Amino acid sequence: MDRADVIILGAGAAGMMCAVEAGRRGRRVLVVDHARAAGEKIRISGGGRCNFTNLGIAPERFLSRNPRFALSALSRFTQWDFIARVDAAGIAWHEKTLGQLFCDGSATQIVTMLRRGMEQAGVTLWLGCPPAAVRREGAGFAVQTPQGPVRAPSLVVATGGKSIPRMGASAFGYRLAEEFGLRVTETRPGLVPLTFAEQDLGRMTALAGVAVRGRVTAGRTGFDEGLLFTHRGLSGPAVLQASSYWREGGAVTVDLARGADAGAILRAARATDGRIAPRTALARLLPERLARFVEAEAGLTGVMADQSNAAIARAAALVHGWTLRPAGTEGYRTAEVTLGGVETDDLDARTMQAKGVPGLFFVGEVVDVTGWLGGYNFQWAWSSGWAAGQVA
Question: Is the CB of residue 288 less than 8 Å from the CB of residue 210?
Answer without folding.
Answer: no
